[in-house]
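Entry 14: structure prediction run for DNA-binding response regulator. Input pasted below.
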Amino acid sequence: MSHVVVIEDESTVQGVLKFHLERAGLRVSAFGTVEDALPSLTAADALVLDWMLPGESGLSFLRRLRADQELKKLPVLMLTARAAEAERIEGLETGADDYLTKPFSAAELVARVRALLRRTQAEVPQVIALGPLSIDVPAAEAKKDGAALNLTRREFDLLTFLALNAGRVYSRTELLDRVWGADFLGGERTVDQHITQLRAHLGDDPASPKFLETVRGKGYRMRTWNP
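Run finished. Output tokens:
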């Protein structure tokens, strides 16, 4: 399930956004300020961002976002009451992927967010190759040295997520959010157990890992492989 973060300080509008996006089958985290939303952005698939916010404006934050190496590719739909063409252009040139003027219809909101998500999903490779490891995403099949790995669906999802983001460290909380979902009731120990199981499948030594690396105090990452 795709995860959409909403930053909108008007509680009524925020509630409307959350209601319609969740009704469309999306997972939504809604916040009133940029500061509150920041920890959730690394686990987001798209951002719905209001132009006028308390403290830092949405436009100012968008500039910061596009300069951030980890978040610069996050798809952004900007919301605003500003209907002038010059202001719409300013938002798009600052880095917004799309623009929606208030008031808007629920159908248009959902359609625009889904369009952003499709663009992102279209960039996901069909097959991920990391040295002797090969992951066929559509077929939900992983192989090492040509031999199929007997993975559960959750193990496959975790392996695929880390492989798609090789080199980047994810905390246990982030992995729970991205792989298991925000409504999962288990704890962080679940992530450790699945990493242990994946290492067993891969024949990976935790003391000298070729694939799944523990970063002390931070979490886990998939190691990158040079071609």
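Notes: Helices lie at 11-23, 34-41, 58-67, 85-94, 106-122, 153-164, 172-180, 189-202. Will compare against the previous run tomorrow.
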